[in-house]
Amino acid sequence: MEQALSSLLVLVIDVNPVWWGQRTEIEDNQLQLCECVDTALVFANSHLMLSHMNKLAVIATHTDRSHFLYPSRKKDISSEGGGDAMATTSAKHDGKYEVFSQVDEVVRREIKYLISQNLEGEVAPDCIIAGALCMALCYINSLEKECPMGEKLSSRILVLKGAEDNPSQYMNFMNAVFTAQKQNVVIDACVLENDSGLLQQACDITGGIYLKVPQEAGLLQYLQWLFLTDPSTRGKLTLPPRAQVDYRAACFCHRTLIDVGYVCSVCLSGELYFPFKSLKSICYINALNVCCSKSTSYVAKWLYAVIWVCFFLGL
Predict the structure, then answer these.
(1) At how many degrees (to 10) do helices 33-50 and 98-116 cross?
(2) Could you read off the pLDDT of 185-199 as tens digits, one per residue?
(3) DSSP output for 158-226
(4) CA-to-CA distance for 162 and 159, rounded, in angstroms?
């Protein structure tokens, strides 16, 4: 018996108020947060419209947290109110598919709640993208376990991002990416303004599509063209060539991207400047004592051998 295929799309939206607010101050004709959310909802409804078995989840990533927008953890008023509430909702949205109305209302309500809870205090210009990926993978894993017999679930994650990368999230981010690769979860990325080296690596490792939008006015067209189809059917489409991936690693101490660094022989952590620091920040091995504990004769023999090798090679 052939298994029924259902597709799960987890949409991660960057709602960082700092980055979106700076765009408003620079130019008035740039894409705003409300327009981006409207475009994402149209794309999400298009995914649900492809098949009645398709599933959807929406996660918002903020400066210090990630929040589930849909499905909401709060119970819907229609589900609590019984038949009268259902009749009121259907009368209010007469002629519109109920699932579309529910997705639009819940996502807009949760975004307002998330932004209103973070109005006080300092706000960072980046977003917690690693936390959003971890939440998406946990949700995908729970749905796969609850998947009924005779049904196969194909899962993917689409990240809609605008803010710059935060190198301090490199370790958590890469752990989430390798977990997605092990679970056969494809990660796609649609970047609005700044290229993201982390998302380039994630898309390349998991077999997803990375796109930096050339014209923000056509965001919906790019989403429908590239990211609406399931990964199993993308081989039949003519897709743009893959961009060159920035595979620079991040220093474990300074949390900055580096081109050349030192690697600890004990824990294999990458260091930026000091290869023989007195105390390693990751494995807490006293590197100086390890080096000095070797006997003088042992070190002298190795130096003597290196000198002879260089002499014979003409170095």
Answers:
(1) 150
(2) 999 999 998 888 889
(3) EEEE-SPP-GGGHHHHHHHHHHHHHTT-EEEEEESSS--HHHHHHHHHHT--EEE-S-GGGHHHHIIII
(4) 10
Q: Cα–Cα distances in Å, from 42 out to 35, 46, 54, 94, 263?
A: 11, 6, 15, 18, 47
Q: What is the DSSP letter of 15?
A: -
Contacts of 274 (CB under 8 A, 6+ apart): 262
The Cβ of residue 140 has, within 10 Å, a number of other Cβ atoms equal to: 21
pLDDT in tens, 248-261: 766 666 656 677 76
The structure tokens 């009924």 sit at: 148
HSE at residue 114, side-chain half, CA atoms within 13 A, is: 24
Asked whether the beta carbons of 6 and 153 are under 8 A apart, the reply is yes
What single DSSP character describes residue 307?
A: H
User: Can you read off the two tokens belonging to residue 224?
Assistant: 């429908």
Q: Which two tokens stand for residue 210?
A: 């990375």
Instruction: Give me the count of residues in the chain.
Output: 315
Residue indicated by tokens 């960072």:
124
In sequence order, the β-bridge partners of residue 186 are 156
Name the pTM for this structure: 0.77
Task: Tell me if the bond preceding 71 is cis, omega within 30° of 0.
Answer: yes
Query: Cα-flanking dihedrals φ and ψ of residue 5, to 5°?
Result: -100, 125
Q: Three-class SS of residue 271? A: strand
